[in-house]
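Dear colleague,

Following up on Tuesday's group meeting, I ran the structure prediction for the two-component complex that the binding team flagged. I've pasted the input sequences exactly as they went in, so you can double-check that nothing got truncated or mislabelled along the way. The structure tokens for the whole assembly follow below. Feel free to forward this to whoever is handling the docking comparison.

Inputs:
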Amino acid sequence: MKIETRRFGEVDVPAQDLVTFPEGLPGFQCRRYVLLTRPGAERVCWLQSAENSELAMMTVSPSLLGFEYEPRIKPAETLILQTENLPDLEIRLIAAEGPDGGLLLNLFAPLLIHRKVGLAKQVPLVGSGHSPVTPWPAPIASDNLPQP
Amino acid sequence: MLSLARRPGQKIRIGEDIVIIVREVRGRQVKLGIDAPPQVSVLREEIHEELCETNRNAARCDAVPACLLDGGHP
């Protein structure tokens, strides 16, 4: 199917690549998205709306973080994704442009994507202590800087 | 919007399987207990708003920052 996008022009994606957020994605009306990767920036997957050409967000894999990111997800929270088996799910983090050319990663509310059935959900990890705007790369603490 | 007056210990039922109980009223604060199926998301409104705002901010970005381009650092 062909999808109009402002950032990437018209893209042709197989219908089975559509990802639906049955509960929606907070902040937006759109429920159907595709994940697009562009040559030259393979570490980023754009979550592009299939219904609104303007709407797209960068997402990255938590493996980028450089530390173990193991969100505690209750099995009941993934029922809507038709699985209670966490390994069925791909975890991605929404990223925004941060200061100094870095990123702000939303570690507080990861995306869970069940590609096999084309379903996804954003899960807020209430009480996890994670921030929705975690700077990446992590700023170097001043006491770790070499002394003059 | 429906407004209901309740006293501590009294409940409100929403649909078949959501029950809200007023646990305690102290000064300007009300403590609520919420009984809902595990797949129903229950969030403080300000957390939901923060989530919406963070997502909208992310959707304003147009270009991949240099640090994420292939061959970029780190």
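Chain A has a mean pLDDT of 89.

Cheers,
M.
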